[in-house]
Write a sequence for this structure.
């Protein structure tokens, strides 16, 4: 067992099991398979509240009254228009970069029209949380348009946060059931304990840096396939499996080659990820409407086979479906291309990231762990022309 204590002689690799913060934002019970968001079980709110309501819950600590929701919605709508610097970044990124790189590039410019960059008060940071969260989907929709060779489009003030994103991406309003599915997804992924991108945001905030830097760093952490980059590959895996008969041999062969099954396993959950349940149901509602059930039905059939084969090939590791397995089907069902899935994750998660930055700022202590030095000591300097190439 590794140790986390300062001056320890071994490292807590991956910080597994190490508590790095107290939070009122969310709790992940990995043994019971329960996710609590600010006091609410995920199943209690997902599918019932809008993303704006979820943001209100994260930032202000309670679900809004009608009046509070109207006030927050007005602010988020007013914040949607991008500063010129970000519009330029979206145009450049959309033409030259992969989606998550384009998002990181454009998000980094979100401080461009900050009215008071030196104001570190809670009120100013709340305004920043609102601005950043309102703008991430506008950035994503527009760089997706640019890379498809279409012109950027202005947001529509009469549409909610999620409906506006779908409208901007497609250029026409989405059906209400598509909006509902997307909204359920964004609410479901809004926060999830001390995941890697949230931790990244908190580390950056802990240096008393600014919120835009924290969110830009979080986007970088989310990009990785071990975190937010898995839904695309999860869908590719189901497509590669192709048929029920092929599932077991395909999965066993992949595991014996040392590969990982995308959409399975989790650092904290030792049972099925509760988000897989919520998103699986939402995906089922969606395919029931569209009639295109093939991949959904195959995923439902593959899941128990994968769990069984994982238990046989990787005994004792408790590997079950995670959020990404059904995310892929849901996001595909709402019409997003695979390479936009991680960006969609960022659209949902930014409400949580900003809340964590606010929480970190309210009770800040610089996050500065230690490392154990295992390299050599006592080496002697030599003039450059007397050095030998490394072996
Ligand atoms: N497929 C096959 N084997 C797996 C998988 C998997 N999906 N996940 C874990 N294992 C195995 C590992 O190979 C390891 O085996 P070993 O003991 O023989 O070396 C053991 O289970 C423990 O794995 P770790 O890597 O130590 O577990 P960790 O907690 O670091 O990993 C992670 C969690 C990264 C999510 C992992 O399960 C994984 O790679 N899953 C696939 C990618 C994925 O679905 N990512 C999305 C996660 S959800 C999210 O972040 C939003």
């Amino acid at each position: 067992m590794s140790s986390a204590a300062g001056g320890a002689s071994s490292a807590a690799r991956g910080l597994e099991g190490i508590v790095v913060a107290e939070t009122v934002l969310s709790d992940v019970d990995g043994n019971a398979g329960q996710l609590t968001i600010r006091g609410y079980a995920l199943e209690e709110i997902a599918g019932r509240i809008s993303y704006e309501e979820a943001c209100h819950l994260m930032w202000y600590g309670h679900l809004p009254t009608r009046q509070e929701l109207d006030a927050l919605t007005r602010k988020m709508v007013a914040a949607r228009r991008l500063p010129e610097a970000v519009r330029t970044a979206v145009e450049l990124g959309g033409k030259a970069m992969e989606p998550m790189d384009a998002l990181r590039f454009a998000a980094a410019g979100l401080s461009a029209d900050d009215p008071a960059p030196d104001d570190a008060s809670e009120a100013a940071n709340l305004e920043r949380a609102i601005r950043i969260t309102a703008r991430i989907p506008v950035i994503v929709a527009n760089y997706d348009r640019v890379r498809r060779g279409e012109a950027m489009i202005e947001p529509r003030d009469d549409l909610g946060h999620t409906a506006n994103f779908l409208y901007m991406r497609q250029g026409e309003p989405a059906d209400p059931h598509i909006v509902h599915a997307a909204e359920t997804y964004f609410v479901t992924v809004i926060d999830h304990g001390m995941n890697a991108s949230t931790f990244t945001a908190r580390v950056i905030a802990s240096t008393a840096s600014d919120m835009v830097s924290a969110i830009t760093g979080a986007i970088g952490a989310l990009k990785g396939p071990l975190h937010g980059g898995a839904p695309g590959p999860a869908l590719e895996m189901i497509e590669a499996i192709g048929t029920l008969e092929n599932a077991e041999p395909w999965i066993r062969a992949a595991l014996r080659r040392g590969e990982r099954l995308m959409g399975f396993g989790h650092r904290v959950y030792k049972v099925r990820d509760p988000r897989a349940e919520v998103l699986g149901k939402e995906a089922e509602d969606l395919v029931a409407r569209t009639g295109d059930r093939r991949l959904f039905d195959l995923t439902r059939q593959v899941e128990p086979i994968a769990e069984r084969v994982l238990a046989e090939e990787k005994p004792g590791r408790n590997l079950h479906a995670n959020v990404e397995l059904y995310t892929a089907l849901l996001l595909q069902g709402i019409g997003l291309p695979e390479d936009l899935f991680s960006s969609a994750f960022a659209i949902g998660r930014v409400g949580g990231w900003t809340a964590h930055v606010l929480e970190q700022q309210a009770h800040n202590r610089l996050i500065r762990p230690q490392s154990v030095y295992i390299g050599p000591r006592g080496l002697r300097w030599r003039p450059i022309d007397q050095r030998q190439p490394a072996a």
Q: What stands out?
A: The beta strands are 26-29, 34-37, 40-41. The longest strand covers residues 26-29. The chain has a mean pLDDT of 94.
